[in-house]
Every structure is written in C-alpha cells, then in structure tokens.
Specification:
By secondary structure, the chain is α/β, with parallel strands linked by helices. It folds into two domains: 1-40, no CATH class; 43-129, Response regulator (Rossmann fold), CATH 3.40.50.2300. The protein has four helices and five strands; from the N terminus they run ββαβαβαβα. The radius of gyration is 18 Å and the shape is elongated.
C-alpha cells in the first residue's frame, strides 16, 4: 500500500517478510530508489535454510513436526515454504497449529506422544514470547 501512496516525497520505511523487489516496493535491494526503504526478513528463504541446518545437525532426521501459528501474519509463508523444502530433503513434515498458550501445550503433548525426529518452530512472535 505504501508503494502506491500518492506521495513521492515523504520517506516510507517498511518491514516485510517477502522480497520487496518481487512485491514491487523497490527497484533493487542495493538501490531501492524512490522514497522507500526498509527491512526484509526473507522468512521463506530462511525456512529452507533452517531445515538444511537441522539436516546437518541431525543427518538421519526424516520425521519433522512443524509448529505454526495459523492466525499469525507469517503463517502463509511458513506453510508455503516449510513443507516443500522438507519434501525436497526427504523429510516428512507434520504441521501442528497453535494460536494460544493452551494450544502450544497441546502441540507439545502431541510432539511427546508421536516422537518425531525434530521440532521445527516457525517464525512467529507468539512462539518467541513463549519460548520458555
């Protein structure tokens, strides 16, 4: 929305999870141009990289449970990127959804019962604030 704003003089700073070039916010990462600049967390690319690191730490990992907050702003990215990346590495990904502390506890009970090889926690402030 900010990129389509009528102003070309007021500086606009953004924070997005996807590539700002693909979103049409900036011309390039090196030279954004116009009156826009900002931060990109590359959530999608990081999900794949995090799974690769998991594979390096646990070479025999095949069954991975992914904890995702379905109501979070990054849920779509997590679901779109984690499952295909895991399949490409020969992993079976099972997604557990949690949007509350109670649902996180239930997800961990499922995790303990089913005993997957690893737990992959998606990037979400809900999980960060409840990491203990």
């Amino acid at each position: 929305m900010a990129a389509k704003a009528v102003t070309t003089t007021i500086p606009i700073v953004f924070n997005v999870a996807e590539d700002p070039v693909k979103l049409g916010l900036v011309a390039s990462l090196a030279r954004p141009g116009r009156n826009l600049t900002g931060i990109n967390s590359f959530i999608g690319e990081l999900a794949s990289k995090r799974l690769e690191l998991l594979r390096e730490l646990l070479p025999g990992v095949t069954r991975v449970t992914a904890l995702v907050n379905p109501s979070g702003p990054l849920a779509e990215h997590a679901l779109r990127d984690i499952e295909p990346a895991g399949r490409a590495m020969g992993m079976q990904i099972k997604v557990l959804n949690a949007s509350t502390s109670g649902e996180i506890n239930a997800a961990f009970a499922t995790f303990v019962h089913e005993r997957p090889d690893a737990l992959f926690v998606s990037a979400d402030s809900l999980f960060t604030t409840r990491r203990v």
